[in-house]
Amino acid sequence: MEIIPLSPYQHEFPGHYGASRSDYFLTSPGDWRDAGYRARLDEMLRKTAGDTPKNVDLYSLYLYKKTASLNETFSGDADALRGVHDEDLISYVRWLRGDLDIFYLIENGDVVYDLLANEPVTPPWEFD
Amino acid sequence: MAGNSNPGSHGGPTNNAIVDTGTMCVQASPLPGVIFGTPRTLTNIHLPGPILVGKAKRDPGFNYDGSRAEDMIAGDKPAKSAVIKSDPMFSKSDDDLNAYMRSLMTSLSIGDMETVALEMQKRFADGIGGTYHSPILDAEIANNPAFVTYHGAFLKRLEPAITASLLAYTPSKLAPRMESFLNPLSLTPLTMNLLNFSSFWDKLFGLGITVHQVWSAKAELKRFHVESSNRFWTCWLHYTFWDHFGLDWEDILKHGDDRIPKYHTGDQFKAWYILQHYRRAKPFITEMSRKVFISGRIS
Fold first, then answer.
1. pLDDT mean over B169-186
2. Where in the sequence is the domain holding A45, given as residue range(s)?
3. Which residues of B touch A20 (CB under 8 A)?
């Protein structure tokens, strides 16, 4: 598994919770039902975030599935991703004031697994 | 004030009927100790609340990452939706677009919910914004199977959390009303999932088009009471749900070509989007509430 920075790699803005930053990445899709895949994803995304969550009030990490239109050549901004490529979102991870408080796995736009609770989300709900 | 020395069934002091001169107090309560620990000195608790016991991980109007929710933005003419300017719907007047949107509401709602859907459409078209609340919508949610399942799942997590917090409860010397503000149960609010109305019946009766999936939620306890002698607690569990009555571009990507239930359903969604993002209509927040009486044993 490989995680590649996606343009825009970094989006900083004054958000509802204070100074906010979102980073965007690409990867090849895996099966979230596979515990091994989930463990690798968990480790890689935490490693990718590093110390960044400590430097802002809210840090978000978006991981998208690599597709024909969403790949290394993509040059849109955060607005061009949201609401356009939601179906390709694989994971959303959030640190609020340094604490990891959301780690969702997403399939076809629906939250299907909560990695912090380590259990499937039943019934799944839309990540919109 | 009269003294108070009667031993209770567990060896601790109990309440004595007295009258405080010049006050409304007709009974003196002993100072509370550790309520369910050792020694087993049981004390009644009554907290008016609200005590926050559950919260979704995003707030009304905002995305998880703290940015503004696109479906709550109006008149922004976003670049990503520029393609809609070449759609035949774009050249229609506001009156025509509102007629399309009303038709969408009536095609996806029945009875009282149709009244609610049309009321919401009018508020949107009039550009009022703010927060909308309807007792009809509250009642519709209360009777919805999705809510019943949701409540059951939440209660399964909440009851043990309340019991655990009671076992660890240390009373403060503050008056109960003041204490309520200080999270007296020391209960970390549970994470709440998002309630979704997407069944066939929801789509038919009106919750699908007016709400579909709540955006945010919170749960609070009110009138929390511990009956020490029989070791049980009771309270009202108040749910508040919020949703956005507005569309984002993703909604058009998903529904802009819909032909069900009517041939023009997709166009009706486009009308809604154009009115909001290219004309003067304003989205608003829908607030729904439901309270449930709950109780549990302390063991």
1. 64
2. 4-126
3. 65-67
